[in-house]
Amino acid sequence: MHRPHRWDTPFSPDMTEAQVKRLLAMPPLKALDPSLFPPQLALDDIIRNDSRIVRCQSGDIIVREGDYGNSTFFVLDGSVGVVLGHDEAAATVGSAAASRRNIFSSLAQLWRNARVAEARDVSRYGDLSLRYQADAVRLYVRDLDALVIEARFGAGGMFGEIAALSRTPRTATCVALTDCELLELRWQGLRDIRRYDLGFRQWIDELYRTRSLASHLMELPLFANLDDASLEHVIAETHFETYGEFEWFSAFRRQIAEDDDGQRAIESEPTIAEEGGYADGLLLVRSGFCRVSERRAFGQRTVHIAMKNDEFGLSAIYGHWQRNEPLVYRQTLTAIGYVDTLRVPTALVERYVLPSLSEEYNQKKAKMDHRSARRFKHNVTRSIADREIQHLQFIMSAGDVRKPTRYAGLEPHLNSDLLNFLVDRRIVNGTATMMIDTTRCVGCDDCVRACAAAHDNNPRFVRHGPAHGNLMIANACMHCQDPVCLIGCPTGAIHRRPGDGRVIINDLTCIGCGTCAESCPYDNIRLVEIRDRNGAFVVDDATNLPIVKATKCDLCADQLGGPACQRACPHDALVRMDMRDQGALVRWIDR
Amino acid sequence: MRTFTQRLYGNIAIVFVGALAIFALNMSLPPLVRYHSLTGWILMACVGFLVLFNARKKVPVLPLLPAATWLQMHIYVGLFAAAVFAMHAGLHYPYGLFNQILWWFFVALTLSGVAGIGGERLIAKHLRDRGEAVLFDRITAFRVRLADETEELARRSAVELGSPLLVDFYCGRIAPFMAKTRNFWRHLLAIRTPTDRLSRQMHELERYLNPRGRQTLHEIEERVQAKDNLDHQYALGSVMRLWLFLHIPLAYGFLLLIGVHIVLVYAFGGF
User: Which helix (H) or strand (E) holds B219?
Assistant: First the structure.
């Protein structure tokens, strides 16, 4: 076989020269200037290889809120509607099921799996029809009239860019209102066009900012009681801000290599709001994660991790509004990695948000008490919205609040040392971090063997990594909230799986360039030399060098029962932990 | 989430109640059935279940219960089996060579199981106490790397210092220490005398060296310490593996003997 290249497997094998010409003559692609693109990355090549034409019937769901997607859509013909919130008609449609083995194929692995490590069925690599399809199953809404359409896009419109650019779940559901023709551009192509065409970049960034702002405010409970006019005023005055580098992994790698102490790590983080500084607005984290710290002698002590939908500064504004206290932030907020925030001016918070919260406070409190009691009982993770309400309850009920970002008495807390470790090492990024309790681990390696049994006889992690006290973070893919490994992949082989957001590598389209392994800040991706079923190394016909593929933990996506490592640990020493749920982490540590 | 302590008390209570129930049921039966049938078959079922744990570990890709749950069941069914065995065999040393062999197998199996539970807890603690945890299979590679680095330091010192003092010390004391795993039993018994002695000798050597030589000596000392930690981990890891080689063959052997026992009982026991 020959060594694979970026566009060996185009997004659609059906894209023709004529179609590319037609697309480049239509808005908004018409506005692009092909002369700005380098010869090796020509605009028509990008369109030919990184896009595909999607035809939908009226009622088809194109993207769904909460799903992960790696592409953006341009409307070529027809009309598309945006449905915000959990619209029942859209929510009742089932999602595409992840492909899993059944019990018989699970059992068959015992004798069917190759005896050598990393063996592949090489004949599959040449078959273009086997490429990963994000939209393998088209869902549709039976009763279009039942939907509340928030916005419409006609020909020339664009949607889906928020999730594609920020590596976040889709923020709205988009439904075809008529039969329509769309151009789907995968994010690698979107990235390259943004890079070379400044006009396109400004246009798309403005769309991103405007839509992100509107949709984010509308989904927050803090703004739930505002009338349309007030909300519009707030939206108009709110500032969209970004902090840190989009490709933050290089600086982070340097920091780790220098064995940086925590204090230097904090100093290198961009400051969003400073303790003692004038509280000019309520800050809302749109994406990414932030460190909330307090001054302690000559350093900073981490007290909280702010993540998506968390707010900062409400207590300061509330104190000023209610008791005329000085309008200053009581803690420092710094960006870890790349962070999008919204800054709602203090005057608007005092004028619209706080009065509306007072009226609804008792109702929310009763609702929260009931829900949290039920969820605690069943050990179910509370949603971010619940935390917002809890936080609100805490602020509104406690007259002498000084440290409002602590949900004191409401949620278990990590100690400051552990928080510092998790934040300094950016382990907070993980949604399935492999944690090992070293007081229970006896080094039996059952987890490693189980992983190898589930993955081509080669474990997808190393039982080794940074440690803090009794807690070791093993070198296993954490399935990050902000998966920077996706940034450079030229083929989209590494992607977030729609539905559950797991970061998966499609072995068929991986060209083994190693970009993802270079980008992963945690060294959790490895390149392996593959073999055929007879155990012989697969080599490039031209160079005679071995063909390599990127591999990493996929949380046993195709296995029944979930991650084999966790299930194989007889000592209860290993867990895959979602770092967004700090309560679960505390309960696991204290078990 | 239940804490380990809650789980421990809960499981012990279940085993105790279960054993009591079997005891009461057994006592209500006629003597012949009491001693040969009910408890015997319960014991057989328990041993069969206990052996399944190892089978579960061999097929990690199947959607069976987590291994941690299996281990918990393994421990408490094992304790329950011990109680049933006491009812079945009586609280006395059995008559006849075959029954005595069977008895010794069960006692050895039970004791090795109990030792395994305690040993795992202790080993986990001691592994954590000494240096960074490394994979058992990589210990040899790390040891060789440390030995090479130490030799290079010693070689370089001969050129830089212009004195054979450090090289002589390396050849006489350090090179043999770095060459292979040392002090296996002392590591198991937590005796640190040999390493402390080596460390003391290095400190004594320090006064005869210039600043550059001291710097080299400190670098060698770091590697000696790291190698000692590897030896520690190797000793404890080896025990874990050796323990499995004891417990598992005993279990299979016992299962085989039980089969023979059942055949003998039904062939010559008058049933």
Answer: helix B211-268
Judge whether A17-96+140-197 and A425-589 match in fold: no
- Are the beta carbons of A463 and B135 separated by less than 8 Å? yes
DSSP alpha helix (H) spans, A238-313: 249-257, 262-268
Report the residue from B62, B67, B133 with minimal CB separation from A446.
Answer: B67
Distance, in angstroms, between A375 CA and closest chain B CA?
13
**The CATH classification of domain A220-416, taken from the options 3.40.50.1820, 2.60.120.10, 3.30.70.2750, 3.40.50.700:** 2.60.120.10
Model confidence pLDDT, tens digit, residues B218-260: 999 999 999 999 999 899 888 888 888 899 999 999 999 999 9
Q: In angstroms, rounded to a whole number, what is the distance separating the alpha carbons of residues B185 and B195?
A: 13
Number of domains, chain B: 2
Fold classification of A17-96+140-197 is Jelly Rolls (2.60.120)
Check CB contact of A445 with chain B, cutoff 8 Å: yes
Is A425-589 a domain of CATH 2.60.40.1120? no
B167/B209 same-domain check: yes
From first CA to last CA, the distance across chain B in angstroms is 50
Q: What is the pTM of this model?
A: 0.73
- Give residue-wise pLDDT tens across range A439-484: 888 888 899 999 998 888 889 998 888 888 888 899 999 999 888 8
Q: Which residues of A touch B127 (CB under 8 A)?
A: 438, 441-443
Residue A166 corresponds to which tokens in the numbers above?
A: 């920020």
* Interface ipTM: 0.76
Q: Which residues of B touch A470 (CB under 8 A)?
A: 128
Q: Sort A415 into a burial class: Cβ within 10 Å, 0-12 / 13-18 / 19+.
A: exposed
Are B62 and B80 in the same domain?
yes
pLDDT tens column, A481-538: 888 888 767 777 888 876 777 888 988 888 888 888 988 989 999 999 999 888 889 8
Chain B residues with CB under 8 Å of A457 CB are: none
